[in-house]
Design a protein that fits this description.
The protein is mainly alpha-helical. The chain is built from 5 helices and no strands.
Length: about 210
């Protein structure tokens, strides 16, 4: 009995080759869409919109807000300390220099803290923008639609460019430096003065100056 013969080996090979060509073509088109979308996302999140000057401007805005407040508080603290020293009659004493050193140290610590916070906030902004870029990538790979991904990224970039630091008034940055024998400074300064005199005496504390006896 005759009957239909199955496809020849040659036909099967040609069919499989055609399937492979179609799959490769689809993959090439898919990769082209992904490359197009990634290129658009990279351009939007690139240096044209988010270079170092963008982040530096963000940090400088925080410093411009906080540093004048610190300077004002420092001026007030210095004026109060000068008044207290004058009232205690120690304005031109070594105690005044010691108190000024304490105040300068507070100011340096406060300024370093403000600058460190600005650096931390700039780093957090960088991380936030990098996270938004990654979200745009994720959407692109999920949808394989470069136009939708690019539009979403453009919206995110527009919002990020409007970012402003969270500005809050500084609290009290300087601890009062009490002046006078009955103040907290007295025992601290007394130890400082004792050490200073000891260091200035080459014989050391408790030394005896022997003299020839006749």
């Amino acid at each position: 009995m005759g009957g239909k013969s199955g496809p020849s080996n040659n036909q099967m090979v040609q069919f499989e080759m055609e399937q492979a060509r179609e799959a490769k073509q689809k993959e090439n088109l898919r990769q082209a869409r992904l490359d197009q979308g990634k290129g658009a996302i990279d351009a939007l999140f690139g240096a044209d919109n988010f270079d170092d000057s963008f982040y530096n401007k963000y940090g400088q805005a925080e410093l411009d807000y906080s540093m004048p407040q610190l300077e004002q508080q420092y001026g007030t603290a210095k004026a109060n300390m000068t008044y207290d020293l004058a009232r205690a009659g120690t304005l031109r004493s070594s105690a005044a220099g010691y108190a000024q050193g304490l105040l300068e140290n507070q100011n340096a610590v406060n300024e370093a803290g403000i600058r460190a916070k600005a650096d931390t906030d700039m780093a957090a902004l960088r991380q936030s923008i990098a996270s938004q870029q990654q979200q745009a990538y994720n959407q692109l790979y999920a949808t394989e639609d470069p136009t939708v991904a690019a539009n979403t990224a453009a919206t995110a970039v527009g919002n990020a460019q409007l970012s402003q630091p969270n500005l809050n008034p500084l609290g009290e940055m300087f601890k009062p430096i009490a002046i006078g024998l009955g103040s907290a400074l007295a025992p601290v300064y007394g130890q400082y003065e004792s050490n200073r005199q000891l260091n200035s005496n080459p014989l050391g504390q408790g030394s005896v100056n022997y003299q020839n006896q006749t």
